[in-house]
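Inputs:
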Amino acid sequence: MTRTLTNEISAHVGETITIEGWLHKKRLLGGLNFITLRDRRGLAQTKVEDKSELEKLRGLQVGTVLALTGTVVADERAPGGAELHDVTVDVHVPVTEEPPIEIDKPISHKSENLDTLFDYRVLNIRNLQEQKIFKVRASLTRYLREYLYGKEFVEIDTPKLLAEATEGGAEVFKLDYFGKTATLAQSPQFYKQIMVGAFERVFEINHSYRAEPSATTRHLTELTMLDIEMGFVKDHDEVLDLVGDMTQTVLRRVYDEHADDLKSLNAPQLALPEDGKVPRFTIAEIHELYTKATGTDTTDEKDLIPDEERWIADYTRKEHGSDLVYAVDFPAEAGKFYHKFKDDGTVAWGDLLFRGLEIATVPLRENNYDKMIEQMTAKGLDVTHEGFKFYLQAFQFGLPQHGGCGFGVDRLVQKTLGLSNVKEATLFPRDINRLTP
Amino acid sequence: MTRTLTNEISAHVGETITIEGWLHKKRLLGGLNFITLRDRRGLAQTKVEDKSELEKLRGLQVGTVLALTGTVVADERAPGGAELHDVTVDVHVPVTEEPPIEIDKPISHKSENLDTLFDYRVLNIRNLQEQKIFKVRASLTRYLREYLYGKEFVEIDTPKLLAEATEGGAEVFKLDYFGKTATLAQSPQFYKQIMVGAFERVFEINHSYRAEPSATTRHLTELTMLDIEMGFVKDHDEVLDLVGDMTQTVLRRVYDEHADDLKSLNAPQLALPEDGKVPRFTIAEIHELYTKATGTDTTDEKDLIPDEERWIADYTRKEHGSDLVYAVDFPAEAGKFYHKFKDDGTVAWGDLLFRGLEIATVPLRENNYDKMIEQMTAKGLDVTHEGFKFYLQAFQFGLPQHGGCGFGVDRLVQKTLGLSNVKEATLFPRDINRLTP
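Outputs:
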């Protein structure tokens, strides 16, 4: 018999249908024997009246794969407003051992409990609440892609195995590559800038690797990044506008299409600016506002201190009705060799904060070859190093003004759902202590 | 002035517009001075009449980033049917050195020339013909995703850093992970099977790593795979049908939407079966047909010999009008521990051949825990090994019958375009000898 999915049964009242899935709950109350079945759409309740059918389930545990055939009866108390009666049971895969965790009950996400969450990931991902996190995640990456396709970005696919570490040598994973040393890419930045010379607008969603020995709520050793780069931009604003518009569009869409999921996960209400423009404050402005409001003087700091990130997020939500805020124009000393430095002693670099967490860095790049050489030399880099050869070639033979972003997909998922640790937004997180499951 | 893109200029005949891009060609013929500009949409021809404007380009080479402002004049001989006259020149980024390759001329893809192709990738990707390969590639992955979204597959994102190598130990890259040894994933197979227990239908497009010391036209050390897994399948046919339908749908769409690109790249004509069903032959049938046709007896071989792959591809194209063919039911001794073995001495495993190259393996899995333990033990594997713990947990607590595929994205691109080496389908290929650019 053709399989009916659990959320479709109410359309078949009076008919005999078959549902397939996992034994999710068994309540045997003497004469009333309820079996709840789980499939990819959700749950269905069934009543097993026949004793010989019930006998087939003796000793079988949650997780047993089975088909249930019965007559659909409308019942308001059942999930989906209908249940199956007079059920016959067909066991496909018996499970005889009791699972070590309750599938029906989500594992707590409290910080002291996260190891349990990940140690039992194989089974707790069968919990319907836990699944919603990763359905939302799948939609977020899908909508990011769709937004960028619509703006003529070409999706590229660049290697993660590199010959040389070009930045941050200490935090790079190294491996033996047929007797040579290879490293794992910390970001596709050089490749995406090179590709601006061909396609003008490119993006990639893929893994980046950071051998950071720190275990915080913000860090993973293997993370998923959306990297964007776009050429022929008039100014930094054009890049900030695109990334801001993308983020708002994608958030609006996920809040719309996953409204029920977000509600049941207690995700925060979404607040986006009415005029569609993410509020922007320079680092100097934030220092000034913060110092005035709190009495703690930060005007000499080059970066935002963590409490300032939280504070400006609260301020922007209150004053501008926005969960998103840009902190722009970092002091020049914070800039890297590939950034565009401005005449006023700042660097054309913005951080996009979402609910108080930096989810993207959005800089404009230096695109003039001679200036690049100058900036690299000033930072003590050897411009003749083999690891820079191909990157510099792109500049030498003409790159337009360009900018882009490194956008943390894991962090976007985390803050969309109001999770307190980025690992909760990841199926199988990797950190200094965790390589399994 | 607002930027007009090159393929839009014919809509502005009589108007003064600005185009921006790269100096692509300069032909100075005394009185007639033509400048061709390249942008992301293609090329535009312009005429520079004013000597002082021409002077701005003295000594500047291909790649120079510039804006050209002029009046649009219809001209059938120009690309797009119009060109710019009376042009004023605004140089954004001067290039003073002549590029080491001609951008206007595609680098030959002859096998003896591939190293040149990749050594100059940074610049040859600026060639419009070369770009088409990667636009087709971006569309193929996009359409694969869209097909799977439409069939309720959830996109998952699984780690490439693993604690243990679980198969093919010799061909695994190893790295130092904070004093422990980690390996790079050869495939997400264990993870996708685990996820069947939650979402029933999952897929992932991501990199896989194979430390194969062989340098062939088929192999990469870092490859891009589409991994699919689907549960609650009735039989192997259901999996073969889905993967076959997906491949045909995606190929039809790319042949339709990239018709001009494919034509100009001399891609082969697409031949798909009229009834939409990919022809299937068992390994035994292919051996028999081949032996009869060629006189070479292969009936004792367990796998197809390479010439048989070519032969059955030709045969299927001639007899069934199809570029795709399934070779199914491998002899049991070819099967792996996670395959479903059939009673007739074969394994429920199909290879999808596209124009003579295996692009996907499409097996049904053993899903019964006790049988898995039995099959693993028979293959000499230690079922108590830490590396199998989480994988086996998924089976122990109930997995439905499932199957899927490992689908080579690089190979799909290669054979779609009729390229002779898989590396040509890859922006920055990695093999035993190549880690740069």
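Remarks. Chain A has a mean pLDDT of 95. Chain A has two domains: 6-93, 123-425.
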